[in-house]
C-alpha cells in the first residue's frame, strides 16, 4: 500500500469527489511516527484508509495483523493511543469514533517492535494452536507465586494502551437535565420520535453519538418526501432547534440507562477540535438526565460472517464499506468480493461499482434470492453467485483471494469444490443485531426474534419504547412510522407536559421502499475442514476468540452462556462484543443442540462505550473534590501559621508552630503555656442543637443517660448519649437556657447524625411530644480560654458579667457582652483548668478572637489546636467519643457510672441495652490509664495489649491503646486504653508487642494525672 | 442580651444588635466570605457578562416552628410584619420602608424568615409575645448563613450544573423555595425572577459553594458585584 | 438512582436529597425493661430482607428533613408508594404481584 509518491503524501484511496468532507480544509496527522493528510469531516479511520493504511494493530493473543473492519463504535481492531503530549494521552481510542483534527498524533496500541513486523506474531503462528481458551488460566496457574511475573510479560506482549503520566490539562463538568421525553439516537426513527414528542408539547432531549444527525441516512442515498434524505434530516433538525423545549446533542453517547429513567450522556465537546480543549471550554460534559419517558432508537449493528481467516485486513462489514465510500469518499481497497445472507449486503457492491471500481462478485448464501437488489445487481452486470459462501480468506497480511464454495440450503456444510477469486477486500453481512444495550441496564433480558435473527429489547421496568431498527423494523417506512408513534406515546404518557402543544400533526414522510427478499440465518460459514482444523474463524476480534474455541469450551462443560463468555473472554473487550456476541451465541447454541433463544444472551451493563475518568469526576476534583468547611476564625489561623487537620469536612487548626519548632516542641509549648497562664482554642466546629418546647426536658431524659429533671436555667451538664444497644454514641455539654429551652452540644463529627437521631425518635416514636430541634452549629463562633489567667483575660473584654468565682460558678453559663459583641459564656472545661467557653454570633467571631489577642498579650495568650486539646484533656482522663470509644463501650466500661441515672421513670435509650447479659459479664474491656515503664516511650495508638509477652503466637489480646501522647505538663508519656477487667487491675503490667518486634511494658493506672482533686477548674 | 420572655418559658436565642457603638470596642461584622475581599474582585470583573454573583451582607435569619399551633404563629407573623405564612414550597415577601422581609416554607412545621440583621431580635420578641402561650419555637440563626445571589443570562445553565432539582422555569417558578442538594452541599434556593436566584448557604460551606459557582460560571463570564 | 416523591414537599426529588434508614415500622417496645435479652436483641438486630416488596424508612435530609416510608420492590427497584409517618400503606405486601 503505497502512500508516498515523489516526496508528496497522497491519499491514494480518496475518491476525487463526493463525501461529507470539507476538501478545503486539509488536515495533517501523525500515525506511528509517519505523517499523513486527511480532510475536515474525516474520522481517523477514514483518513487512514484514504492513505492506504491497512494494518492498524495486532490482536491481543495471537498477534495477528488486523485492519479496520467497521465505521462506527462497534469497531474491534482500530484501537489507537492518541495524544500529542504526555499530558493529553488517551489509551484505546477507536479510530472510527475519533474525528480527525489538525495535529492529531496517534499510534497503534499493540505491536512490539512495530505493527508491520511483530515478534509475537511468530509465537502466535507457532504456539497459536496451543493458545486455546483458558490458555492463561491453564498455563500460568502454577506455580501461583509466578503469576505476577508472567502477568508483566503477558501484558507487555498483549499490549493495551497506556495512561498519561501527567496531570490532565483539561476540565470537565456535569449538567442535570429534566425532560419529558429522552430520545436515544438521531437516525430516522429518533428524529421522528423527537419531532412527534416536541409537537405534542414535551420537553425533549435527542442525543446521537455521531458528529451529525441522520444515522444510517448519512450513507444511504434514499429520498424522503421527494428530497435527498440528508436535506430532509436538516429540515427536521431546523424545526427541533427552533423549539426552545428541545435540546439536540451530537457527539453524545448515551452511556447508561438507570433506574426510574435516569440516563447518563457523555457529550464529547472538543475531541474534534484538537489535542486539548480550547481555553474556557470543558472537554467533555456528562448530562445526567431524568426523563419521564424514554424512546430507544439506537438502530442496529451489522454482523459480519464468521469464516476462515476472517480477521485478515481487508475483511469488513458491508455497511462499513458503504459508509467509507459515501460518507468519506474513501475506497477501502481496489477489488471487492461481497458475501451476504440478506438483501442489505448488496448495497456496498453497488456503491463500489457506482464509483467505477471493480466488484469481482456478490456471493449470496441464499439459493434463490428474490429481492429487488438481485435485479439491480444484474442490471449493473455484477456477477451474483447464489447458494454459496466465502469459506476462507487468503493472504499474508492483507486479503489476496477469497475461497468460494457452494453450500447447502441450511448453510451447515460445503457441497461443491472450492474456487479462488482474486480480490483485496471481502465485505460480509450476516444480519443486523439491534443495539439493545441500554434496555438491559435495569435488568431486563433481550428477547430473540426469529423474523430478524436478532435480539430485540425485552420489557423494561419503566416501559421504555423501542422504535426502528432496534425493535426489528426492516424498512425505512417502518422506522419512520415507529418513530412517530413512539414519540407521541412517550409524550402522552407524561403526566403533565410543560410546553405548548402544536396543532400540526405529524404524518409519515413519503419513502419508496424496495421489495425485500427473505434473509437467511447464517453465523458460522462452513469450511471443508472442521473448525479446529480449518484456518481460524474469528468470532471476537479483540480477544481472539475463534469458533473452535467456543466449541472446545462447550465440550469442556461450559454450557451456560455466562460461563462461556467468561472462560473464552468473548465480548470482554472495549467493543463489548457488538459484532461478535450473537455469532458466538449461535455457535454455542448449535454445539449444544439448542436454539439461540434457549441459549439466551448475556446482558449489558453501563457504560455502553468507555467513558474517561475525567468526565466521571467532572468538577469534583482538587479544591472541589469534597466541601471544605471553615470556622469564622479560619483566616486568623492561616495568617498565624497554623497547620490544619481534617475533622470530617472541617479544617481545624491542628497546631500553631513557631519558627524552628518541630511538632512536639509546639505541643509542649502550647500545653505548658495553657496550664501556666492562658491558652485559647477555636471550638466552633462542635455541633450545637437548639431544643425548645414543653417536653424538651423529658425528651433529654430519654436520649441521655443522665438526669435532666432538676437542671435549672443558667446551668450546664455533661450528657452521655447511647444507642439502644447500650453503647456510647456521642457526648457533650447541654445547658438549660430557660425552663423549656436547652442548648445541646455534640462532637464535631456527630452533629448531623445526632440531629437525625433526635428527629428520628421524635417523628417516628414520640410525635406527641411538644419539642423542636434546630441546628445552630454555624450560627455560633466558639472560642475557649483556659488557664489560671482566663478569668483575668475575660475581665478585660467583658464588663457586664460578674466573674466572681461564687457568682459565676463552674458549670454555670451567663449572657453578656464580650468585646462589644453579644455573647453567651459557659464555665465548662475540657482541659481541667479554669475555663470559659465564649460564644458569639459567627459574624462577630473574628472580631472577638482578635480582641482577646489584643488584650491577651500581657498574659502571653497562646493559641492551641486540636492536638494540644487532645493532650490536655487526656491529662485529665476526659474521654473523646469516637477516639476512646468505638461503638462497643458502655458508660460503665468507660468508668462513667456517675453519668448514668437509673432512677429515671422512662426507660431511656441505652438503659435496656446496658442491662444485657453480655454487657454485665466480667472481663469486659474497660477504660484505664497507662504509664509506660520508660517514661519517654510513647505507645502507638491502636497497639494491642497482652498479659504475657512470652506467649507464643497467636497471643491472647486483652485490649488496645485508644489515646497516647507525650505530656510536657506531666513530664512523661501518658496513654488511655481499653483493657479487659482493667479497672480491677490497677498497677498491673500489660505488654504491647509492636510491628518492629519490640515489646513495650506499661502499668495500668488512673487517668487523672493533672490536678486530680479538680481544684483548678473549680477555682 | 438574652432575655427571658413573657411566660418565662423560653430564652430568646438572639442577642441584641445595638444601633450605635460608642467605644473602641465596636464589633466588626464579617460576612462568611469577608476574607475573599469582594470589593476588589468586583472592581476587577466586567459587568453584564453571562453570570453575576453577589454575596449579600449579613442578613437576619429566624427559624419559625409550629405544628398544632400553626394558626397562632401565622397570626403572630401577620400582626408583627403584615406577612403571611407561606404554603408548601412558597415564599412571601413584604417590603416596608426599604426593609425587606421574606418568609420561606421549609417543612410542614418550619419556616425561614429573613429580615435586616438589626431587627431580628425585636421581631423574635414581637412574634413570641403575639403568640402568647402557644407551642411555637423561634431560633435566631443570623450568624449561621450567608446569602448569594446568582443572575445573568446563563444563570439557569449554572443552576443545571449545580443542583439536581428541575430548574426549568415552568417548574422552578418565581417565588418557589426549595431545599436541595447543591453539588456536595445543601442550599435553600429561591427563584426571584427569570435567571435570578437566591441561595441561602450555611456559613461553613460558603467558600465551597462560591468556588463551585465560579468554576461553573467560568465559561459564561463572571461579573462580581457587591451590594 | 431513584426519583422519590416526598409526601411533605409534595413533589418528586432526586435520590441524592434523601437518606435510607432501613426497615420501616420498627416499633420500640413500650416496656423495654421487661423484654428478655432475646426480645431486645431481635428489636436491635433482626430485619427483613425480602426479594420483593419492602417497606422502608427514608429521610428527606437535604429537603424538609422529615421521615417518611416507601414501599419498594427490591428486585425491580420500582417504588409503589410513599407515605407519611403515621399513615397506613395502601399496597399490601402479600397481594401485589411482581416479576
What do you see in this structure?
- The complex is a heterotrimer of chains A (1019), B (227) and C (99).
- Chain A has seven domains: 4-130, 2Fe-2S iron-sulphur cluster binding domain, sarcosine oxidase, alpha subunit, N-terminal domain (Ubiquitin-like (UB roll)), CATH 3.10.20; 172-300 and 434-492, 3-Layer(bba) Sandwich (FAD/NAD(P)-binding domain); 333-429, FAD/NAD(P)-binding domain; 538-599, Arc Repressor Mutant, subunit A (Orthogonal Bundle); 635-646 and 665-684 and 779-873, 2-Layer Sandwich (Gyrase A, domain 2); 687-775, Aminomethyltransferase beta-barrel domains (Alpha-Beta Plaits, 2-Layer Sandwich); 917-1005, Aminomethyltransferase beta-barrel domains (Elongation Factor Tu (Ef-tu), domain 3, Beta Barrel).
- Chain A has 25 helices and 51 strands.
- In chain A, the strands form 14 sheets. In chain A, strands 10, 11, 14, 15, 16, 17 and 30 form a seven-stranded mixed β-sheet that branches. In chain A, strands 42-43-44-41-35-45 form a six-stranded mixed β-sheet.
- With 227 residues, chain B is an alpha+beta fold.
- Chain B has two domains: 36-57 and 144-226, Gyrase A, domain 2; 60-142, 2-Layer Sandwich (Alpha-Beta Plaits), CATH 3.30.70.1520.
- Chain B contains five helices and eleven strands.
- Chain B has helices spanning 38-44, 70-81, 120-131, 155-162, 206-217, and strands at residues 51-55, 60-66, 91-96, 99-107, 110-115, 136-140, 145-151, 177-182, 185-193, 196-202, 222-226.
- The radius of gyration of chain B is 18 Å and the shape is globular.
- Mean pLDDT of chain B is 89; it is low at 1-9 and 12-24.
- Chain C has a domain at 1-24 and 47-89: Folate-binding superfamily (Folate-binding fold), CATH 3.30.2270.10.
- Chain C is built from one helix and six strands.
- In chain C, the strands form two sheets. A four-stranded antiparallel β-sheet of chain C has the order 3-4-5-6, with no helix packed on it.
- In chain C, β5 and β6 form a beta hairpin.
- Chains in contact: A-B, A-C, B-C.
- At the A-B interface, β10, β40, β42, β43 and α22 of A face β6, α4 and α5 of B.
Amino acid at each position: 500500500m503505497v502512500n508516498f509518491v515523489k516526496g508528496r503524501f497522497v491519499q491514494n484511496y480518496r475518491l476525487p469527489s463526493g463525501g461529507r468532507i470539507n476538501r478545503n480544509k486539509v488536515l495533517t496527522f501523525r500515525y506511528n511516527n509517519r505523517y499523513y493528510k486527511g480532510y475536515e469531516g474525516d474520522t481517523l479511520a477514514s483518513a487512514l484508509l484514504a492513505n492506504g493504511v491497512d494494518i492498524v494493530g495486532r490482536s491481543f493473543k495471537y498477534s495477528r495483523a488486523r485492519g479496520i473492519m467497521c465505521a462506527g463504535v462497534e469497531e474491534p481492531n482500530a484501537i489507537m493511543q492518541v495524544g500529542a503530549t504526555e499530558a493529553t494521552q488517551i489509551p484505546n481510542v477507536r479510530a472510527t469514533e475519533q474525528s480527525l483534527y489538525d495535529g492529531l498524533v496517534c499510534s497503534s496500541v499493540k505491536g512490539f517492535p512495530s505493527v508491520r513486523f511483530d515478534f509475537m506474531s511468530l509465537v502466535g503462528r507457532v504456539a497459536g494452536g496451543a493458545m486455546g481458551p483458558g490458555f492463561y488460566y491453564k498455563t500460568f496457574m502454577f506455580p501461583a507465586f509466578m503469576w505476577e511475573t508472567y502477568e508483566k510479560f503477558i501484558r507487555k506482549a498483549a499490549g493495551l494502551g497506556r495512561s498519561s503520566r501527567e496531570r490532565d490539562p483539561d476540565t470537565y463538568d456535569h449538567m442535570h437535565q429534566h425532560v419529558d421525553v429522552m430520545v436515544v439516537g438521531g437516525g430516522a426513527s429518533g428524529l421522528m420520535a423527537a419531532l412527534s414528542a416536541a409537537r405534542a408539547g414535551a420537553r425533549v432531549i435527542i442525543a446521537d453519538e455521531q458528529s451529525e444527525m441522520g444515522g444510517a441516512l448519512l450513507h444511504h442515498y434514499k429520498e424522503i418526501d421527494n428530497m435527498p434524505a440528508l436535506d430532509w434530516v436538516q429540515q427536521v433538525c431546523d424545526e427541533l432547534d427552533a423549539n426552545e423545549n428541545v435540546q439536540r446533542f451530537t457527539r453524545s453517547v448515551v452511556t447508561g440507562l438507570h433506574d426510574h429513567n435516569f440516563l447518563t450522556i457523555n457529550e464529547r465537546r472538543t475531541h474534534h477540535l484538537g489535542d486539548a480543549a480550547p481555553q474556557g471550554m470543558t472537554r467533555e460534559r456528562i448530562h445526567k438526565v431524568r426523563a419521564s419517558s424514554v424512546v430507544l432508537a439506537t438502530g442496529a449493528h451489522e454482523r459480519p460472517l464468521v469464516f476462515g481467516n476472517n480477521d485478515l485486513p481487508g475483511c469488513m462489514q458491508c455497511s462499513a464499506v458503504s459508509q467509507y465510500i459515501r460518507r468519506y469518499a474513501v475506497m477501502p481497497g481496489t477489488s471487492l468480493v461481497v458475501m451476504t445472507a440478506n438483501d442489505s449486503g448488496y448495497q456496498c457492491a453497488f456503491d463500489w461499482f457506482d464509483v467505477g471500481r471493480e466488484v469481482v462478485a456478490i456471493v449470496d448464501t441464499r439459493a434463490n434470492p428474490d429481492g429487488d437488489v438481485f435485479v439491480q445487481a444484474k442490471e449493473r452486470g455484477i456477477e451474483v453467485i447464489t447458494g454459496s459462501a466465502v469459506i476462507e480468506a487468503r493472504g499474508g497480511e492483507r486479503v489476496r483471494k477469497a475461497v468460494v464454495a457452494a453450500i447447502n440450503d441450511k448453510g451447515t456444510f460445503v457441497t461443491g469444490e472450492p474456487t479462488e477469486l482474486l480480490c483485496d477486500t471481502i465485505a460480509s453481512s450476516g444480519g443486523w443485531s439491534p443495539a439493545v444495550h441500554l434496555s438491559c441496564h435495569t435488568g431486563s433480558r433481550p428477547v430473540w426474534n426469529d423474523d430478524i435473527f436478532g435480539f430485540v429489547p425485552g420489557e423494561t421496568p419503566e416501559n421504555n419504547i423501542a422504535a426502528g431498527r432496534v425493535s426489528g423494523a426492516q424498512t425505512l417506512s417502518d422506522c419512520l412510522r415507529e418513530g412517530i408513534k413512539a414519540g407521541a406515546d412517550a409524550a402522552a404518557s407524561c403526566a403533565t407536559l410543560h410546553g405548548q402543544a402544536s396543532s400540526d400533526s405529524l404524518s409519515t414522510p413519503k419513502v419508496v421502499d424496495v421489495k425485500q427478499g427473505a434473509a437467511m440465518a447464517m453465523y458460522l460459514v462452513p469450511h471443508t475442514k472442521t473448525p479446529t482444523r480449518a484456518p481460524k474463524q474469528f468470532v471476537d476480534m479483540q480477544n481472539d476468540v475463534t469458533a473452535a474455541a467456543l466449541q472446545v469450551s462447550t465440550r469442556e462443560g461450559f454450557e451456560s452462556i455466562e460461563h462461556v463468555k467468561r472462560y473464552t473472554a468473548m465480548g470482554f473487550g472495549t467493543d463489548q462484543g457488538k459484532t461478535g456476541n450473537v455469532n458466538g451465541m449461535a455457535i454455542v447454541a448449535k454445539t449444544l443442540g439448542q436454539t439461540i433463544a434457549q441459549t439466551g444472551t448475556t446482558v449489558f451493563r453501563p457504560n455502553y462505550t468507555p467513558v474517561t475518568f475525567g468526565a466521571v469526576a467532572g468538577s469534583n476534583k482538587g479544591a472541589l473534590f469534597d466541601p471544605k468547611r471553615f470556622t469564622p476564625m479560619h483566616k486568623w489561623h492561616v495568617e498565624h501559621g497554623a497547620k490544619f487537620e481534617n475533622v470530617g469536612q472541617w479544617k481545624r487548626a491542628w497546631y500553631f508552630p513557631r519558627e524552628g519548632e518541630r511538632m512536639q516542641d509546639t505541643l509542649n509549648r502550647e500545653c505548658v503555656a495553657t496550664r501556666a497562664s492562658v491558652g485559647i482554642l477555636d471550638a466552633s466546629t462542635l455541633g450545637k442543637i437548639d431544643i425548645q418546647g414543653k417536653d424538651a426536658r423529658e425528651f433529654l431524659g430519654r436520649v441521655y443517660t443522665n438526669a435532666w429533671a432538676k437542671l435549672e436555667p443558667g446551668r450546664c451538664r455533661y450528657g452521655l448519649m447511647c444507642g439502644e444497644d447500650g453503647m456510647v454514641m456521642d457526648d457533650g455539654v447541654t445547658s438549660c437556657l430557660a425552663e423549656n429551652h436547652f442548648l445541646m452540644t455534640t462532637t464535631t463529627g456527630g452533629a448531623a447524625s445526632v440531629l437525625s437521631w433526635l428527629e428520628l425518635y421524635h417523628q417516628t416514636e414520640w410525635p406527641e411530644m411538644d419539642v423542636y430541634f434546630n441546628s445552630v452549629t454555624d450560627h455560633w463562633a466558639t472560642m475557649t480560654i483556659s488557664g489560671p489567667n482566663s478569668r483575668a483575660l475575660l475581665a478585660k473584654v467583658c464588663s457586664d458579667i460578674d466573674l466572681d468565682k461564687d457568682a459565676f460558678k463552674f458549670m454555670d453559663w451567663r449572657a453578656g457582652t464580650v468585646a462589644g459583641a453579644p455573647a453567651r459564656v459557659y464555665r465548662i472545661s475540657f482541659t481541667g483548668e479554669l475555663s470559659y467557653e465564649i460564644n458569639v454570633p459567627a459574624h462577630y467571631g473574628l472580631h472577638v478572637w482578635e480582641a482577646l489577642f489584643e488584650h491577651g498579650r500581657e498574659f502571653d495568650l497562646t493559641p492551641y489546636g486540636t492536638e494540644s486539646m487532645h493532650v490536655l484533656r487526656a491529662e485529665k482522663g476526659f474521654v473523646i467519643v469516637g477516639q476512646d470509644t468505638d461503638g462497643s463501650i458502655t458508660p460503665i466500661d468507660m468508668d462513667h457510672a456517675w453519668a448514668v441515672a437509673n432512677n429515671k421513670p422512662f426507660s431511656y435509650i441505652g438503659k435496656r441495652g446496658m442491662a444485657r447479659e453480655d454487657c454485665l459479664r466480667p472481663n469486659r474491656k474497660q477504660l484505664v490509664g497507662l504509664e509506660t515503664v520508660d517514661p519517654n516511650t510513647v505507645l502507638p495508638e491502636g497497639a494491642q495489649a497482652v498479659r504475657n509477652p512470652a506467649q507464643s503466637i497467636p497471643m491472647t489480646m486483652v485490649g488496645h491503646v485508644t489515646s497516647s501522647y507525650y505530656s510536657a505538663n506531666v513530664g512523661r508519656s501518658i496513654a488511655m486504653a481499653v483493657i479487659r477487667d482493667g479497672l480491677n487491675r490497677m498497677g498491673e503490667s500489660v505488654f504491647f508487642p509492636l510491628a518492629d518486634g519490640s515489646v513495650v511494658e506499661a502499668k495500668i493506672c488512673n487517668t487523672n494525672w493533672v490536678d486530680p482533686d479538680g481544684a483548678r477548674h473549680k477555682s | 442580651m438574652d432575655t427571658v420572655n413573657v411566660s418565662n418559658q423560653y430564652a430568646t436565642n438572639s442577642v441584641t444588635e445595638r444601633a450605635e457603638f460608642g467605644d473602641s470596642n465596636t464589633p466588626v461584622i464579617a460576612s462568611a466570605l469577608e476574607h475573599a475581599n469582594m470589593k476588589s474582585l468586583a472592581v476587577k470583573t466586567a459587568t453584564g457578562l453571562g453570570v453575576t454573583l453577589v454575596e449579600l451582607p449579613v442578613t437576619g435569619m429566624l427559624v419559625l416552628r409550629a405544628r398544632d399551633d400553626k394558626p397562632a404563629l401565622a397570626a403572630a407573623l401577620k400582626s408583627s410584619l403584615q406577612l403571611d405564612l407561606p404554603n408548601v414550597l412558597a415564599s412571601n415577601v413584604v417590603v416596608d420602608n426599604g426593609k425587606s422581609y421574606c418568609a420561606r416554607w421549609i417543612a410542614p412545621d418550619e419556616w425561614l424568615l429573613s429580615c435586616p440583621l438589626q431587627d431580628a431580635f425585636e421581631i423574635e420578641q414581637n412574634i413570641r409575645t403575639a403568640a402568647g402561650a402557644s407551642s411555637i419555637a423561634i431560633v435566631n440563626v443570623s450568624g449561621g448563613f450567608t446569602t448569594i445571589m446568582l443572575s445573568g443570562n446563563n444563570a439557569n445553565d449554572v443552576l443545571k450544573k449545580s443542583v439536581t432539582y428541575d430548574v426549568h422555569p415552568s417548574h422552578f417558578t418565581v417565588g418557589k423555595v426549595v431545599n436541595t442538594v447543591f453539588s456536595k452541599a445543601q442550599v435553600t434556593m429561591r427563584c426571584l425572577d427569570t435567571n435570578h436566584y437566591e441561595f441561602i448557604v450555611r456559613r461553613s460551606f460558603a467558600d465551597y459553594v462560591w468556588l463551585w459557582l465560579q468554576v461553573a460560571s467560568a465559561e459564561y463570564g463572571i461579573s462580581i458585584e457587591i451590594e | 438512582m431513584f426519583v422519590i416523591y416526598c409526601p411533605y414537599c409534595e413533589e418528586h426529588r432526586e435520590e441524592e436529597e434523601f437518606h435510607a434508614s432501613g426497615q420501616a415500622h420498627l416499633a420500640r417496645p413500650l416496656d423495654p425493661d421487661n423484654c428478655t435479652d432475646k426480645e431486645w436483641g431481635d428489636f436491635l438486630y433482626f430485619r427483613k430482607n425480602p426479594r420483593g416488596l419492602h417497606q422502608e424508612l427514608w429521610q428527606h435530609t437535604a429537603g424538609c428533613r422529615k421521615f417518611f416510608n416507601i414501599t419498594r420492590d427490591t428486585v425491580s427497584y420500582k417504588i409503589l408508594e410513599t407515605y407519611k409517618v403515621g399513615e397506613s400503606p395502601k399496597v399490601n405486601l402479600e397481594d401485589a404481584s411482581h416479576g
